[in-house]
Structures are given as structure tokens and as C-alpha cells.
């Protein structure tokens, strides 16, 4: 087809030369004609390019404005159930082709998937509330008692240890040729069983896949729930299956060795520390309810000065050189003084873990999952005399 056009153009030029042979130089006239046509063509091309550039700039600016509607405020809103107009607009492949094609002027038209309404499934979804990424969780107890004790990992379902119940104490000076005294030492084999602490929650599979932050939250909350239950068991478990046998039920009862009259709370802690020392088990820590430690913190001398330090100063929670562990797992008004590392050992059979499974009831067919957190451990209180437990005296009326 291009060849035919070239032939026709050449024939037309020949006729033009013949018809204008008496009108000046035909080649000069032809050159002038072609020059005028070329100038006109260049002007048209320039006009088209300017319009194309304007359309491309307008399209790009419009796309950015639509896109910004879904991100205003700098937060990730998540899925609203359907795409907004702006999301549909900028995601359309024809828009990209239109913006890149500068060879000709034109327009880009796209049909949105729904009519304009205030509903969340149409353009109304473009006006969405700002969603903060942070999730406000409920307050929870900070576990602390485990850190006071010795911890050993084991592989069996039970733990055996040898405990000495009687010391050889008959040693004495012996006269020449006299019969030497015989001492007795009694050892016993003690077995403690590992116990499982666990809890689980149901959740939809879609939530776990679409909200990684929620999954992390569940993982953290479940693990913290285990730690809180563990702390209560370590302190106060009654030993009846499936409970652990805790520190408080096996501790030695507090009896004031100095028989002080009208002791303060600080006096009581001092004499409890003394009781441990008299049992040859020097204490290395104190466990209190936060309210009781604050009551001690507020005690003043005769000059009105705080005994444990000024309110504006940072005071480490210590009494008589020993660290004070504050936990709401300890009953208010009670205290536990001990040589904790030597008194008891935690045996970890399963470290805390979180498992997700569809193998529960009809969860598989409902696209549900069970999220299980569990641990398995044993607790051995080897030296009850190394723990002193008691209550603060009632304040004077």
C-alpha cells in the first residue's frame, strides 16, 4: 500500500511539473510547496505533543489524588470489603498505558464497580476513620518469682532427687581408747511429677492470615497468661493434682525470734531474715505485695522524713540489703523471706510454646483454628527451712 502511495505522489509531481512548465522554475516552485507543507506538518505535530503532555500530567495528578484518599493520615486502614474508586482507578492497567502513550491525544475512561453511595462497599469507603496500629491490651501482672529460683531442663515426666532429713551430729571429743560416737544420717528419695499449665482460644483462619499483628498479640497474651498461672502455682499451689506444690504451703512458719512488742512491718521483715539466719539459711530475697512495700516506703521518722528515702529520689526496692520482689500474686499483708535459689528448683519439661491447629471439633470445615499455649514443669521445694512465711501484725488502733 505504501508503494502505491509513493507512485501516485510521483505521478502527481510529474503532472504538476508539466502544468507549471511556463511558470518560472518548476523545481523552485515544488521546493517552496514542500517547504510550506513541512512547516504546517511540524506545527500540527507540536500542537499534538503539547496536548498529549498536558493530558498525561493531568492523568498522573488525578491518579495521585485518588490514591491519597485511601492513605490520608498515614495509617494502614486494612481492607474495607471492596476497593474505593481511587484504588480501582490507579490499579487499572489501561491507565498506565494511557499515561505512557504520548503519540496521540485521547482520553481514559474507567467504569467503577459500584454506584456512588455512602455504603462501605462503594465510594463511601474512601472516607474511613483513622485506625491506629497500636492495640490497647489489658494490664497484666509481671512474673518475677521464677527468676529467684534455680531452673533445670529435664526430659522425663517425673523428677527424683535425694533429700537429707537428718544430719550426722554425734561428733564429740574422744578419750584415748574410748569408744568413738556413732552418727546417723538419713537420706530419702523424693519424686515430683511434672504438671501441664495450658489454655487456648478459638480464632478464624482469615484473621490470622490478614492481620499478622493480631497473631503476634495472641501469641504474646497467651504466653503471658501462662506465666501468670505459673507464678500463682509456684507461690501457692496446694500440691493436689494437677497443681504444683508451691513455696508458701511448704515454707516454715514465721515466729519472731526476738519477741518484739508492737513491731512495724520493717521490724517484722528484719526478724524474719533473722529466723532464716538462725536456721543456717541466710536469706537472699523478700517477696511482698506492692501495697505492703509502699506502706513501708511511706514510713517517716520523728522529723517527718521518709525512712526509705525522699519521694524525689530513685530508691531501689531493698530491705536490709536484700532485694524486694513485688508481685500481686502474694496476698496482701503476707510476706515470704527466703534463700530462694537453694530452697527450690523448677524443672522445665516443656518450655512455653504456642501451637495453631484446625484439629478441633469442626474447626477444619469452618475455617477456624485453635491457638494453644502450654508448658510442662515440676517444682521441688528441697529446703523448707530456707523459706519463712508469715503475716504482718495488725496495726495498733
Summed up:
It is found in: Virion. This protein is an alpha/beta fold and 397 residues long.
Could you please describe the fold and organization of this structure?
Helices cover 35% and strands 21% of the residues. It has 397 residues and is of the alpha/beta class. It folds into two domains: 2-126, no CATH class; 145-169 and 186-391, 2-Layer Sandwich (Major capsid protein gp5 fold), CATH 3.30.2400.10. A hairpin with a 2-residue loop joins strand 7 (318-319) and strand 8 (322-326). Helix 2 packs across helix 3 (85-91) and helix 2 packs antiparallel against helix 4 (93-100). The N and C termini lie far apart (117 Å). Mean pLDDT is 80; it is low at 70-80, 104-109 and 114-118.
Report the span from N to C terminus. 117 Å
Number of DSSP E strands: 12
Proportion of strand residues: 15-25%
Number of helices: 10
CATH architecture verdict of the largest domain = 2-Layer Sandwich
Overall domain count: 2
In terms of per-residue confidence, which ranges show pLDDT below 50 for 5 or more consecutive residues?
A: 70-80, 104-109, 114-118
Radius of gyration: 43 Å
Topology:
Elements lengths: L1 H18 L6 H44 L15 H7 L1 H8 L49 E4 L4 E9 L19 E8 L1 E10 H6 L1 H25 L10 H4 L1 E2 L11 H14 L6 E4 L1 H8 L20 E2 L2 E5 L7 E5 L1 H4 E14 L10 E14 L5 E5 L6
Parallel strand pairs: 1-10, 5-12, 6-8
Antiparallel strand pairs: 2-3, 4-11, 6-9, 7-8, 9-12, 10-11
Helix pairs in contact: 2-3, 2-4
Amino acid at each position: 500500500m505504501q508503494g502505491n502511495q509513493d507512485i501516485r505522489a510521483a505521478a502527481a509531481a510529474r503532472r504538476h511539473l508539466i502544468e507549471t512548465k511556463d511558470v518560472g522554475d518548476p523545481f523552485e516552485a515544488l521546493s517552496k510547496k514542500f517547504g510550506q507543507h513541512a512547516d504546517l506538518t511540524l506545527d500540527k505535530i507540536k500542537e499534538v505533543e503539547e496536548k498529549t503532555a498536558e493530558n498525561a500530567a493531568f492523568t498522573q495528578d488525578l491518579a495521585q489524588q485518588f490514591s491519597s484518599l485511601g492513605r490520608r493520615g498515614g495509617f494502614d486502614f486494612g481492607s474495607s470489603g471492596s476497593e474505593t474508586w481511587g484504588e480501582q482507578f490507579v490499579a487499572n492497567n489501561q491507565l498506565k498505558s494511557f499515561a505512557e502513550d504520548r503519540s496521540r491525544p485521547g482520553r481514559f475512561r474507567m467504569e467503577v464497580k459500584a454506584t456512588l453511595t455512602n455504603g462501605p462497599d462503594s465510594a463511601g469507603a474512601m472516607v474511613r476513620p483513622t485506625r491506629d496500629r497500636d492495640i490497647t491490651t489489658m494490664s497484666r501482672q509481671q512474673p518475677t518469682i521464677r527468676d529467684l529460683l534455680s531452673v533445670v531442663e529435664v526430659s522425663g515426666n517425673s523428677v527424683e532427687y535425694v533429700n537429707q532429713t537428718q544430719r550426722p551430729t554425734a561428733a564429740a571429743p574422744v578419750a584415748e581408747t574410748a569408744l568413738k560416737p556413732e552418727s546417723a544420717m538419713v537420706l530419702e528419695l523424693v519424686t515430683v511429677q511434672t504438671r501441664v499449665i495450658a489454655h487456648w482460644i478459638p480464632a478464624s483462619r482469615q484473621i490470622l492470615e490478614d492481620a499478622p499483628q493480631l497473631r503476634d498479640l495472641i501469641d504474646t497474651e497467651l504466653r503471658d497468661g501462662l506465666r501468670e498461672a505459673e507464678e500463682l502455682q509456684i507461690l501457692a499451689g496446694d500440691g493436689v493434682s494437677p497443681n504444683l506444690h508451691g513455696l508458701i504451703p511448704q515454707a516454715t512458719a514465721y515466729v519472731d525470734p526476738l519477741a518484739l512488742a508492737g513491731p512495724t512491718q520493717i521490724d517484722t521483715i528484719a526478724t524474719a531474715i533473722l529466723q532464716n539466719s538462725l536456721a543456717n539459711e541466710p536469706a537472699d530475697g523478700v517477696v511482698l505485695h506492692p501495697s505492703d512495700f509502699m506502706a513501708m516506703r511511706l514510713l517517716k521518722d520523728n522529723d517527718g522524713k521518709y525512712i526509705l528515702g525522699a519521694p524525689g529520689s530513685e530508691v531501689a526496692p531493698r530491705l536490709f540489703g536484700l532485694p524486694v520482689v513485688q508481685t500481686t500474686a502474694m496476698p496482701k499483708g503476707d510476706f515470704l523471706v527466703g534463700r530462694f535459689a537453694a530452697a527450690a528448683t523448677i524443672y522445665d519439661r516443656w518450655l512455653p510454646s504456642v501451637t495453631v491447629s484446625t484439629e478441633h471439633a469442626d474447626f477444619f470445615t469452618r475455617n477456624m483454628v485453635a491457638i494453644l499455649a502450654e508448658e510442662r514443669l515440676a517444682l521441688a521445694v528441697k529446703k523448707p527451712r530456707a523459706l519463712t512465711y508469715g503475716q504482718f501484725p495488725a496495726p495498733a488502733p
